[in-house]
Amino acid sequence: MKLTKERIVDAGMAVFAAVGYQNLSMRQVADRLDTHAGSLYYHVRGKDELLALMADRVCRRAYDGGTEALAALPPTATWQDRIEAQATALRRSIKQHPGGAQLLAESPATLSTGALALMERLLRTLVDAGLPADHCGIAADTLLSHVTGFVLQEQNQFTVPPPVTAELHTSLREQFPLLMGSRVPRLSQEEKFTRSVRLLCAGFEAVS
């Protein structure tokens, strides 16, 4: 099968899912494609460019997911609804790629049209909502950082939680009564994410 940039990105994503950001190498990608590493450089200049292309793919798919989510909103949807739809689509897209949050957080700072499209649409939503222009850039960047960080924590959670004995739990409740007590509700990840985005939007609105 002909070697193409798309196939190299496919292989890169698969290798990344298996070995992570730091351990990914062009040789491993070449091995997955059953070719020599030198052949890859006709299409991709090196690991940094490959990682940037992989991050761009995640962003583009997130953008497409956001487009579908926005189209499904009713005409009466608020700007907060539109922000939530975009944030939820981005989270879903990142989670579809093992290590996707780490990829976005650590990928080289190169010009990515996929990432720029996500930021542009968030900015447009905030500007159209009437938020001060000097706050919109920070707000959009905060939203993207929040979603990436939220998924990074989700993807880095232990598969098996550490054991907590009754004695340890009692001790922890005495040291951290708010965190471990009943006053702070225990929420699902879905509910926690939704509430966190709504809290951010409430903060943005408060300075408008």
From TrEMBL:
tRNA-binding listed as a keyword: no
Matching SUPFAM superfamilies: Homeodomain-like, Tetracyclin repressor-like, C-terminal domain
One GO process term, biological-process aspect: negative regulation of DNA-templated transcription
Family annotation (PROSITE patterns): HTH_TETR_2
GO MF assignments: DNA-binding transcription factor activity; transcription cis-regulatory region binding
DNA-binding region: 25-44
Entry keywords, A to Z: DNA-binding, Transcription, Transcription regulation
HTH tetR-type domain span: 2-62
InterPro entries: Homeodomain-like_sf, HTH-type_TetR-like_transc_reg, HTH_TetR, Repressor_TetR_C, Tet_transcr_reg_TetR-rel_C_sf
Any Pfam family matching the protein: TetR_N
PANTHER family: HTH-TYPE TRANSCRIPTIONAL REGULATOR RUTR, TRANSCRIPTIONAL REGULATORY PROTEIN
Protein's UniProt name: TetR/AcrR family transcriptional regulator
Organism field: Kitasatospora camelliae
